[in-house]
């Protein structure tokens, strides 16, 4: 019985997280976590790397 309750609890938690993620993460404000400048061009423009929330979540999942 304890195993079934554990699986049910995990199902509930992950379904809530997934439903939040599918509704929220595609929005524009969730695309870029940070921008890291790499170099400045002579005309004053910057070239950089965009760090995304998707990359952060992917890295966290890999570590866990």
Structure report:
By secondary structure, the protein is an alpha+beta fold. Helices cover 53% and strands 25% of the residues. The protein is built from 2 helices and 2 strands. It has helices at 2-24, 53-63, and strands at residues 32-40, 46-52. It has a two-stranded antiparallel sheet with strand order 1-2.
Classification by helices and strands = alpha+beta
Radius of gyration from the alpha-carbon trace, in angstroms = 19 Å
Q: In percent, how much strand structure appears in the residues?
A: 25-35%
Q: What's the total count of β strands? A: 2
In terms of per-residue confidence, which ranges show pLDDT below 50 for 5 or more consecutive residues? none
CA-based shape? elongated
Number of helices, counting only DSSP H or I runs of 4 residues or more:
2
**What do the pLDDT scores average to?**
90
**Which strand order does the major sheet show?**
1-2
Largest sheet: 2 strands, antiparallel
Compose a concise summary of this entry.
By secondary structure, this protein is of the alpha+beta class. Helices cover 53% and strands 25% of the residues.
Question: Could you outline the blueprint of secondary structure elements for this entry?
Answer:
Blueprint: H1 2-24, E1 32-40, E2 46-52, H2 53-63
Antiparallel strand pairs: 1-2
Task: Quickly list its features.
64 residues, alpha+beta, two-stranded antiparallel sheet, 2 strands
């Amino acid at each position: 019985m304890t195993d079934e309750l554990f699986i049910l609890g995990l199902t509930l938690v992950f379904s809530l997280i997934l439903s939040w993620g599918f509704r929220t993460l595609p929005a524009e404000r969730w695309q870029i976590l940070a921008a890291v400048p790499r170099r400045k061009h002579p005309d004053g423009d910057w070239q950089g790397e965009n760090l995304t929330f998707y990359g952060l979540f992917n890295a966290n999942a890999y570590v866990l």
